Amino acid sequence: MSALVPAVAFWLAAWGLNIWLAARLRGSARIAVPALFGLAVLALWEGTVRAFAVPEVILPAPTVIAAAFAGNLPILWSDFVQTIVKGAMTGYAMGCGAAVAVAVLIDRSPFLTRGLLPVGNFVAALPVVGVAPIMVMWFGFGWQSKAAVVFAMVFFPVLVNAVAGLAAAERMQRDLMRTYGAGYWPTLWKLRLPAAMPFVFNGLKIATTLAVIGAIVAEFFGSPTRGMGFRISTAVGSLALPMVWAQICVAALAGTAFYGLVAWAEARVTFWHPSQRGRG
């Protein structure tokens, strides 16, 4: 129990400091609040595991996970490239790009626009554990099958948002463009696509987490001897839980950075939208 007392004391001190900082810091300096909160959680986690002698296979201490992380950097990097760069990001780029292009193509068809949204919602709800084995059978055990799973997972959420976004421009604004003599494509480029950007970025942000999850889960159904999903499944089999947690940390960091990059791009593309005002 000796390790728990300082951990709880640190938690309480960090809690009080967080309340003080949250009320005073502004702008980017407020990132100190979640950082301090995260450190307090890690301290309480470390103290609890050591105080109650929790077995490593149940819950390893953060210091043990950090040691596994530092000792397996080449493996973690190789798995990151295989899963995130090749599988997730390739499938994400292809799926999102195809979804926006298809949304523009079907925009002029009321039948497809109205009929596709329910189908898109249905397909988006398909479980990845059912889609992944099929893609592995079609495209093999390499990263191509993982990119195909990611493509299937991100395509319809982005498509549904893009179709809804293209209909967001108000009738009065479209009438004004017609008054200026603008045809379909100038109206699409100068009015409707900018108006659709908040919807498109909502879909892109949702797709970032889907891409990471899809690429990792797909590797459980067949992959070469590298990749985050492959490493997690083999580490669980050998009870190397610190390695599993290290892979989880890499996935969480990659997913957060991916989402943050898309949110950063959104803030600069849709700076005019009311949702972006007052941020920064």
Can you give keywords for this protein?
280 residues; single chain; flat; mainly alpha
Summarize the structure.
With 280 residues, the protein is mainly α. It has helices at residues 4-24, 32-51, 62-71, 73-106, 110-124, 128-139, 143-166, 171-179, 184-218, 228-237, 241-269.
Descriptive report:
It is built from 11 helices and no strands. Helix 3 crosses helix 11 (241-269) and helix 4 (73-106) packs parallel to helix 7. Helix content is 78%, strand content 0%. The protein has helices at residues 4-24, 32-51, 62-71, 73-106, 110-124, 128-139, 143-166, 171-179, 184-218, 228-237, 241-269.
Topology:
Elements (H helix, E strand, L loop, with lengths): L3 H21 L7 H20 L10 H10 L1 H34 L3 H15 L3 H12 L3 H24 L4 H9 L4 H35 L9 H10 L3 H29 L11
Helix pairs in contact: 1-2, 3-11, 4-7, 4-9, 5-7, 6-7, 7-9, 9-11, 10-11
Structural class: mainly alpha
Helix content: over 70%
How big is the Rg? 23 Å
How does the major sheet shape up? none
Q: Low-confidence spans: pLDDT under 50, at least 5 residues?
A: none
Strand content: under 5%
Helix/strand order: HHHHHHHHHHH
Total number of strands? 0
Q: Could you tell me the mean pLDDT?
A: 85
The CA-CA distance between the termini, in Å, is 43 Å
